[in-house]
Amino acid sequence: MSSVTVRVPAKVNVQLSVGPLRDDGYHDLVNVFHAVSVFDEVIAKESESISVRVEGESADQVPVDDGNLAIQAARALAKHAGRTYGVELIIRKAIPVAGGMAGGSADAAGTLVACNELWGLGLPREDLMEIAADLGSDVPFSLLGGTAVGTGRGEQLAELATGGRFHWVFAIADGGLSTARVYAECDRLRAALGEVVAWPQASDALLAALKEGDARALGAELANDLQPAALMLRASLARTLEAGRELGALGAIVSGSGPTCAFLAADEDQARELAVGLVGAGVCRTAVPAHGPVAGASIV
Ligand SMILES: C[C@@](CO)(OP(=O)(O)O)[C@H](O)COP(=O)(O)OP(=O)(O)OC[C@H]1O[C@@H](n2ccc(N)nc2=O)[C@H](O)[C@@H]1O
Ligand SMILES: Nc1ncnc2c1ncn2[C@@H]1O[C@H](COP(=O)(O)OP(=O)(O)O)[C@@H](O)[C@H]1O
């Protein structure tokens, strides 16, 4: 095999409940992940050394050195296999960079699947999941896809069966937000308000809405503890969320650490109309309709 192509989805967090700050600098979470049909593509080609080239959406903002999560993934996999391997990685980005949709995690997961195949390692998914968790909290979910409840720092996953397809619109902003900065702002706001931070719990109403495929109920239950922090760091997002609500979205939420905003629609037609309306209202750089759940990193 001289070349392998893998497609990996973005995610939205339909519930993100942030618990207390841990000693290791992470927060315990209940993170209900939902994979959506905005895909990066990772192409892995035979090579002597490990390198990466990035094309597409905001490619100039992605590092091509060891800071690239895909490079880290290739190195981690080679180390796990106990050999020196090379690969030329080409990443075609559609997932917004630093957008709260796990684009870097997607590329890392895609690289694990692609190199496992290219190098003929034949490692089972469980091994890839373990390597993924060391690369980043969201990387295991990018492998798994679908809908899942993440606990711990988000890396311990329990799959959720959902009833049918949900239709979304993602309002993509100019520029990104740093995940670490948004978590730090969340801690700062909580301390300033003297909040007692509760242990995170999955919402029964939200899980039931997912299971039943009830978009209206899901829209009412969307919840993100990082949203106040993201709004504090990017005040303009309040207008974006409001515009979506006024245009009739069933739910409006910041995706993860933001700044992408996610809107739930009743069906595909409404999603298309919402996307046009959001761009027309001038509250985002672009708006992308998508659906979920979709499969995790898969060879195409
Ligand atoms: C917020 C979420 C929601 O799914 O993703 P994004 O919206 O950024 O994509 C995740 O929790 C991000 O996961 P990921 O981007 O993989 O984070 P990591 O690389 O593991 O950690 C980056 C930094 O985020 C903070 N962090 C991350 C996860 C966690 N449970 N608690 C944290 O406090 C820490 O400051 C950490 O140093
Ligand atoms: N393959 C990659 N794609 C995107 N960003 C990457 C990648 N590798 C490393 N990064 C770095 O990770 C940061 C967070 O990117 P990303 O994963 O897209 O955002 P988020 O954590 O908000 O979902 C970027 O600002 C970039 O510097």
From TrEMBL:
From which domain of life does this come?
A: Bacteria
Q: Which Gene3D superfamilies does the record cross-reference, listed alphabetically?
A: 3.30.230.10, GHMP kinase, C-terminal domain
Q: Which GO terms describe its molecular function?
A: 4-(cytidine 5'-diphospho)-2-C-methyl-D-erythritol kinase activity
> Which residues are in coiled coils?
none
Listed EC numbers:
2.7.1.148
Free-text function comment from the UniProt entry: Catalyzes the phosphorylation of the position 2 hydroxy group of 4-diphosphocytidyl-2C-methyl-D-erythritol.
Q: Mind telling me what this protein is named?
A: 4-diphosphocytidyl-2-C-methyl-D-erythritol kinase
What is the organism field in this record?
Nonomuraea mangrovi
Tell me the name of the encoding gene: ispE
